[in-house]
Amino acid sequence: MANYDLQNISADIVTETDQAVEKAIYERLQQQFPTFAFIGEETFKDGTTLTDEPTFIVDPIDGTSNFVHGFPVVCVSIALVIHGQPTIGVVYNPFQDELWSAVRGGGAFASQGSSTPRKLPLSSLPLENLQTASIGLEWGSDREGPNFDLNLKVFTKLARTVASGGHFANSLRFMGSAAIAICRVAAGQQDAFWECGCWAWDVAAAWCVLLEAGGIMVDGHPGKMHPPLHNRRYLAVRPATTGQQEFVEEFWTVIGDSRSTYGPALRK
Description:
Elements: H1 2-32, E1 37-40, E2 55-62, H2 64-69, E3 75-82, E4 85-93, E5 98-103, E6 107-112, E7 118-119, E8 134-137, H3 145-159, E9 171-173, H4 178-187, E10 192-196, H5 200-213, E11 216-219, E12 233-237, H6 244-255
Parallel strand pairs: 1-2, 8-9, 8-10
Antiparallel strand pairs: 2-3, 3-4, 4-5, 5-6, 6-7, 10-12, 11-12
Helix pairs in contact: 4-5
């Protein structure tokens, strides 16, 4: 009972912190840009749509479970989206004082503490195959049904040896923050990130960082190279001199004919 109560207290604290951070961000942005729309995870209401108008999309705490457990892979994610396209992206991890930022057409940068911002990617070697790849993944909230089954299939095929029908990926990483994982892809620190089920506020800012660094974002299901921001299915692939298209096509073969139930949506 004590453990249950402690979990409830932790969840309440996180919810309060989420709401307080989002409120502070909203008020500051409203002062500077009163005509811009605002979509935040905590204040989002069903029926809200993403239009072509300038819109801030905010996740006040990405990495909630990490936050609860004191694991310092947590960030604030703020994006400005215009005509449905991420135009400015800022991702900040206050615990490690890491900042990733990008402006469409102006490049992407990363810094830590007082260090001079470094232009991304930090490296852009040719992209090889899944056997040499470090891939970011997440379990998501569904632990049964078709979405869970798809995760199990993909994770297993990536991990298995080639002889047993898998792809024997070099490394599978679960960071607990989609935004930070995508920024790591943008920097060239991991080769790809795949998740079905996250929301536009989880990926919008990092998406801008990824594209400006030279990476690509494609559909988490096979077939679509240019998915909408609110797609809910994402495969981010790092900047590379060659091999991005081939890598995407190989990853899509892992999914095969299986599908999640997630599709383009901007609602809870």
